[in-house]
Design a protein that fits this description.
Blueprint: H1 2-22, E1 42-48, E2 51-58, H2 66-79, E3 95-102, E4 106-107, E5 120-125, E6 128-132, H3 142-153, E7 162-166, E8 168-172
Antiparallel strand pairs: 1-2, 1-3, 3-8, 4-7, 5-6, 5-7
Helix pairs in contact: 1-2
């Protein structure tokens, strides 16, 4: 598992570095670990000095395999998160990367099935969708988790919600 974690975070780092330094997508190795051929949603999170610096992901796979999903979302986290300017070459040594591989979202019947430390959530209200990863600092109740996801989606008031839960496999650099 440790080698897989290192492989996944190194792939994300290589994608960020190649894009920031050369403006290109890195090559996907011809030989991949077995897991990299699977398909899943992936979120790549960049932090600088412990603070969020970029986070982009897909809750369902859009690329042909996990390796492509990681590379695509790592580049987007570095360059396309609307909350931040693109990562600069001078920041690369200060950026810490984590990669979350998501399970298939499962519709819940009751909010009692939720636990913000264990499950991420996806809320849907009409055509609006909001997602919140699990085990985030400061998100310690189901109500708070739902409210943040609702706000991210732009879902107002008491609009009826469909709620889905998912788990993540979280891979951290140096961890």
């Amino acid at each position: 598992m440790e080698n897989l974690a290192r492989y996944i975070t190194n792939l994300a780092r290589n994608a960020v570095q190649e894009y920031v330094i050369n403006g290109k997508k890195c090559d996907i190795p011809a030989e991949l670990p077995k897991k990299m051929y699977e398909r899943a949603g992936v979120f790549v999170t960049l932090k600088k000095e412990g603070n969020l610096r970029g986070c982009i992901g897909t809750f369902r796979p859009v690329q042909k395999n996990l390796a492509e999903e990681i590379v695509s979302n790592a580049i987007s986290a570095a360059d396309s998160d609307p909350r931040f300017p693109g990562v600069d070459v001078s920041e690369l040594d200060e950026i810490e990367i984590s990669v979350d591989v998501l399970s298939e979202p499962e519709k819940i019947k009751s909010r009692n099935e939720l636990d913000p430390k264990k499950y991420g959530i996806l809320v849907k209200g009409g055509h609006q969708t909001g997602l919140l990863l699990p085990d985030l600092e400061g998100v310690d109740t189901v109500a708070k988790q739902i409210e943040i996801a609702r706000r991210k989606a732009g879902i107002q008031g008491d609009k009826s919600l469909e709620i889905f839960k998912f788990v993540v496999e979280r891979y951290h650099e140096n961890g």
